[in-house]
Amino acid sequence: MSFNLGVRMQVANFTPEDILAKLARQTEDGILCDVQLEVEGVRLSAHRALLAAVSPYFRALFYTDFKERDQKVVEIKGVTYESLKAIVQCCYSGELETNAESLPDILAAAHLLQVKEVRKCCDLVYLFN
After folding, report:
1. Which of 46, 105, 114, 124 ranks highest by number of CB atoms within 10 Å?
2. pLDDT tens figures, 27-56
3. For residue 25, which phi and psi values (nearest 5 degrees)?
4. Parallel, antiparallel, or unpaired for β 35-39 and 42-46?
């Protein structure tokens, strides 16, 4: 018996979007996350690999000899909690929730954290408003 293995099939509930949604649920439940980002005394659970994949800032923080590489709780300075939360949620969902009041803080945080896609999104909002 021979098989032609040249077929590509989409596996249900195994798309990148589905996997990111499941990872996001893990952050909400606080399970299987390997880092907590602390801002303004509040902590936000996340996955280092995902943060490093979208941000050169986090890549450097977690994969070089910075002390934060091995810390379970990493303090992030220079951003607001709400802006960091919006950016991290965007990393998991691909959607940025903002309003006119929070947009400047999100843009500043996106610059600091080097999240290019969020910066571009914020720039577009400014461009068209």
Report:
1. 46
2. 999 899 999 999 999 999 999 999 999 999
3. -60, -35
4. antiparallel
pLDDT in tens, 91-107: 999 999 888 899 999 99
Cβ neighbours of 34 (radius 10 Å): 12
DSSP H or E run through 2: none
Other C-beta atoms within 10 Å of 10: how many? 6
State the total domains in the chain.
1
7 within a domain of the structure (yes/no): no
Phi, psi for residue 15 in degrees, rounded to 5: -80, 160
Question: What is the pTM (predicted TM-score) of this model?
Answer: 0.87
CATH number of 91's domain: 3.30.710.10
In a domain, 93, yes or no: yes
